[in-house]
Specification:
alpha/beta, single chain, binds S-adenosylmethionine, Rossmann fold, seven-stranded mixed beta sheet, 7 strands, 24% strand
């Protein structure tokens, strides 16, 4: 995990979660596998629970997602905060992932997604995308989340490690209320994407 990402996630915690430090929070980290460090220590607070989610079993992974686009182990409206760093560029159909994030996030729940806008190909197990601020905005709009902050790190130098090559984009968003019509629309969209026209996950790579 590179330095700029830890800085960005620390900033999210300090700016957006400070007010919840005495409340019980379930914080799920998508793509949590400990490659070279993890966000877990940042959220090691007595009233908070951290849950690592990944498609691969390994260090810092509490739940292995059998289907990356249908998280059967997590019920709707069950998570207070979803964080994710350096994972979205590896998710082939990331627009389906963001629908799952929206489904499991409680109304008023927060998410923070960090993904590079630059950098060399690095396959975990694939490397598909880079993200800019407008892409992050579009993604949040698609999932019905309200944007609270979005920015890209353009700083190339001054880091202790290779952070400058990644130029991370960061979005912080909040789940809106889920009235009946929204739930119905999202259920239909999910049914359409996962049952009627599921993605072909055999890409031959
Ligand atoms: C580059 S690693 C980043 C790990 C850690 N978050 C970090 O910053 O060091 C990317 C992780 O995303 C996971 N990943 C890939 N596709 C995923 C998916 N569809 N859903 C969840 N995680 C996924 C990979 O298994 C891998 O552990």
């Amino acid at each position: 995990m590179h330095e700029s990402s830890l800085t960005n996630m620390t900033r999210f915690r300090d700016q957006f979660l400070e007010q919840y430090k005495d409340q019980d929070l379930l914080i799920a980290d998508l793509g949590s596998y400990d490659v070279n460090g993890s966000y877990r220590p940042l959220f090691a607070h007595s009233s908070w629970s951290y849950l690592g989610l990944d498609v691969s079993a390994g260090p810092n992974v509490d739940i292995v997602l059998e289907n990356p686009y249908n998280w059967q182990t997590l019920s709707s409206d069950s998570v207070d905060v979803i964080i994710s760093g350096q994972a979205f560029e590896h998710i082939e159909f990331f627009w389906l992932t963001v629908l799952e994030i929206s489904r499991v996030l409680k109304p008023g729940g927060l998410c923070c997604i960090i993904a590079p806008s630059s950098g060399p190909e690095h396959r975990y197990p694939v490397d598909c995308w880079r993200f800019y601020r407008d892409g992050m905005r579009a993604l949040m709009a698609y999932a019905g989340l309200e944007i609270l902050d979005v920015y890209t790190n353009h700083q190339l130098t001054g880091w202790q490690d290779d952070s400058g090559i990644w130029q991370d984009s960061v979005v912080v968003a909040r789940q809106r209320a889920k009235p009946f019509r929204r739930r119905l629309r999202e259920r239909l969209r999910r049914y359409f994407h996962l049952v009627l026209l599921p993605p072909n996950q055999d890409l031959g790579n």
